[in-house]
Amino acid sequence: MPLDTTPWVSLAADPAIALGPLDGRYRADVAPLVDHLSEAALNRARLAVEVEWIIHLTEQGAIPGAPVLTDAEKAYLRDVVATFGPAEIAELAAIEAETRHDVKAVEYFLKRRMDHAPEVLGSDTALPAASELAHIFCTSEDINNLSYALTVRSAVHDVWLPAARVLVDAVADLARAQAAMPMLARTHGQPATPVTLGKELAVVVHRLRRQLARIEGDETLGKINGATGTYGAHSVSVPGTDWEDVARGFVTGLGLTWNPLTTQIESHDWQSELYDDIARFNRILHNVATDVWTYISLGYFVQNLSAQGSTGSSTMPHKVNPIRFENGEANLEISSALLGNLSSTLVTSRLQRDLTDSSTQRTIGIALGHSLLAIANVTRGLAGLGVDPAAMARDLDANWEVLGEAVQSAMRAAGIAGVTGMADPYERLKELTRGRRVDGAGMREFIAGLGLPDDVEARLLALTPADYTGYAERLVAHLD
């Protein structure tokens, strides 16, 4: 008999039961993003843009007859943003239920506050009479593009980047600590020229840091130029004002880069660039997670049970599963897929405007949330790792054939220097090592029979797989 999954109690509970894992199971890890990329945070940013637009217009004297606001009136307007909390969120939702338009609801909400200003500032305040300054000359996208620019930038710089830096610094610390730890390389999954654990970790630190630098330097663009990007209403209504100059000053005053050429919408190219860079960071980190998972399976890393959690397998009590890295893998894949979709779709808009970006941009928080969750898990996973030098040493000692590269290269160099009997070095080493294991005694016997110069022979006879790491240890210093 199939299981009946029809709910016998409604799941529309109070408090609400989350549909998705970011607002449910993993809420604690992604909660800081709520203050930046939730619907409430977007509406708060919209309010902030509307308020600052009013203040900017009055300070610039852009519209003849508009009042010069007092410091108290500016503070009152900015306090509308600062005090935007649960009650205000509910009030705004009620207004939107009537307007059926989110940005128009924000405008009406602000006008209500301006109408009520005399209750706080006294009857002589100019704010009620100035309420038509709210949203003047603005299409919804003038407010939205700036609001998204501010919230995405703050989410990335205040939440995502600090978490990513902590992770990369943790890998860098581990790389420095293990700079000299010899480890068998496995190119194509096969035993290969040894490296050090620290050098391999340093490689990914270098890669991740390059992406962080790109993300830190990505521009955030904005515009405020009307219904089709022409300042049409501005120039007809108030022809004596240089509206490009007013717009440039407003956008740059918000700390953004002014985009002078747009349709109705800001083109979102900066978002595409940013999301591509974060997705690239994700994919490199995904590579880190899968490699660490493999090193755990090889026994090179051991896991601290208290750091990983007390239960490995639900049925096999001996197991300590690498769940942090597996969780990281999954969430990085989800994040990268969403970021890739954002990047590819946001750069297109039919003719002067379509609304596909309105729905698409509402997933930005989800895309960054899965990345932030992965970063948290990989960071915890790294904190629970220990290194097993004995396991790495056993692997090295079982694969003396990896010295074949060093021996044939020394033969080539000797032959170039005029030493006889050094012909076909690659082929001779291939015959010795291809598809077979060679122990230390066998490799030394081969070296001793080559007729190499004494100093070269002595150097090769003293070489072990654990010693054959080249500049690996010193390369880690590039991190500093």
Descriptive overview:
This protein is mainly alpha-helical and about 475 residues long. It has 3 domains: about 35-120, Fumarase/aspartase (N-terminal domain) (Fumarase C, Chain B, domain 1); about 140-390, Fumarase C, Chain A, domain 2; about 400-465, Fumarase/aspartase (C-terminal domain) (Ribonucleotide Reductase Protein R1, domain 1), CATH 1.10.40.30. Helix content is about 60%, strand content about 5%. It has a two-stranded antiparallel ribbon. A hairpin with a 6-residue loop joins β1 and β2. GO terms for molecular function: N6-(1,2-dicarboxyethyl)AMP AMP-lyase (fumarate-forming) activity. Keywords: Lyase, Purine biosynthesis. This is Adenylosuccinate lyase.
Name some characteristics of this structure.
22 helices; 3 domains; two-stranded antiparallel sheet; Fumarase C, Chain B, domain 1; 480 residues; mainly alpha; Ribonucleotide Reductase Protein R1, domain 1; 6 strands; single chain; N6-(1,2-dicarboxyethyl)AMP AMP-lyase (fumarate-forming) activity; Fumarate_lyase_N; elongated
